[in-house]
Amino acid sequence: MKPIWIVDDDASIRWVLEKALARENLATKSFANARDAMAALETDTPQVLVSDIRMPGESGLSLLQEVKTRHPGLPVIIITAFSDLDSAVAAFQGGAFEYLAKPFDIDKAVELIRRALEESLRETSVESAPADTPEILGQAPAMQEVFRAIGRLSQSNVTVLITGESGTGKELVARALHKHSPRAGQPFIALNTAAIPKDLLESELFGHERGAFTGAQATRRGRFEQAEGGTLFLDEIGDMPFDLQTRLLRVLSDGHFYRVGGHQPMKASVRVITATHQNLEQRVRDGLFREDLFHRLNVIRLRLPSLRERREDIPLLVRHFLVQSARQLGVEAKRMSDTAMHFLAGCELPGNVRQLENLCNWITVMAPGQTVEVKDLPLELTQGQASVPESLPPPPPPALSDFSGGGLVRPMPVPAMAGGATLAQLGAAGGWIGLLELQAASMLNAGESEVMDVLGKQFESALIKTALKHTHGRKNDAAVRLGIGRNTITRKIAELGIDGAREE
């Protein structure tokens, strides 16, 4: 923690504050005039600044103005022997944290400095963005589209609305947009509007003046002020209360806002990026979201794919998260067996990348060996439902359309079959080959003919449909991914009656 600076031409005041703060184990640095403090600001900054208002040479108000220009979030306490209204008004208009008149009670002064210290540390934690934007991983075509969009927006200040399911990485994308924008050198401030109680959200966004409400003992900057010159990311914007939507619209429209309890307009030069997992158009129709605000936010919309749409990225993500988790815990990274990785690649993970990261943290801590097998994964991920009652006929064998790419699409609780084994257990034991054998055996036992032709067409159809889904219907890209020619995939699409393909 940085020291507390004391600026006063009265040596006795400096000595008293130094001794009182030393008893609190708080470091101090003292200056006899504002000029020396301003010079020190060129190379250093305090955690809190305490300054007399009237001194020979530069005044405390001049120092206050200099500090607020360089470090807007730094709390400044003004001390004066002239407890007149004009000085108090001038100090607060200049952004002072508090005003303290001489003679003051030393215990109250220390208490005030402690409050300012807490505010300073809160500001520091909010404004200290990570030095490096967390890596966004993905090789799937859907993620490549996202990367291209970030690149196209790199030199723009346009408002962006990021949509996608929870856990898809919306904040990571917002940070990437900021990092590659002209505002990259300024603060990136993130706020989840759904996580702040309604009665506190207005103050959190716009700040408040001292005495604006019960408990507002000091002026506080809101997130718009903290993000000045940079980017403000508002997550879960669909949950913002309706009355606050009006205030947000005003800021986006003319760039001005008022602190809670304030009468002086504040100007905001901030790029706003918002995100939601909700359907904002439907919320507009339901009267829960302002239509004019929706159009103001929806300048550029960037949709993030769910993990279901980029299953080929799961092995890459798993390896990354296992290494990351091991590094954080200071242990050797776990390895997934081919069968376990194959199983995970087919899992239904509704929490998307966040759930996968949490799963890898669990594996790092809980899995017994260095090589992780399916049996080492959490039970809720692998165990099936209880067996089907004996009075019911056995379920039919699974169709190949139930499988995709190399594993079960949904290794969720499913009915038991084949001697009590579940589909999840069969898939883990023999993969899709075992399931194919089961399907073939069932057809042969039923006396069906042309089993090779029927299963071959189902196999080809499943492969081509899956490839087209991953390439968003682009059949030439799908052909390249499958390793077949363009003429071949065109002929197969026609023979198999597959819909949804398009030319490049």
Note down, in words, how this protein is organized:
This protein is an alpha/beta fold. The chain folds into 4 domains: 4-123, Rossmann fold; 141-305, Rossmann fold, CATH 3.40.50; 308-382, Helicase, Ruva Protein, domain 3 (Orthogonal Bundle); 449-504, Orthogonal Bundle (Arc Repressor Mutant, subunit A). The protein is 45% helix and 12% strand. The chain has 20 helices and 18 strands. The protein has helices spanning 11-23, 34-40, 60-70, 85-93, 106-127, 141-152, 170-179, 198-206, 223-226, 242-254, 280-285, 291-297, 314-329, 338-345, 352-366, 379-382, 423-445, 451-470, 475-482, 486-496; strands spanning 4-7, 28-31, 48-52, 76-80, 98-101, 160-163, 188-192, 231-235, 256-257, 266-267, 271-276, 300-303, 335-336, 371-372, 403-404, 407-408, 416-417, 421-422. A 5-stranded parallel beta sheet has the order 2-1-3-4-5, with helices on both faces. Strands 7-8-11-6-12 form a 5-stranded parallel beta sheet. Helix 1 packs across helix 5, helix 13 (314-329) crosses helix 15 and helix 14 (338-345) crosses helix 17. It starts with a strand and ends in an 8-residue tail after the last helix. The relative contact order is 0.07.
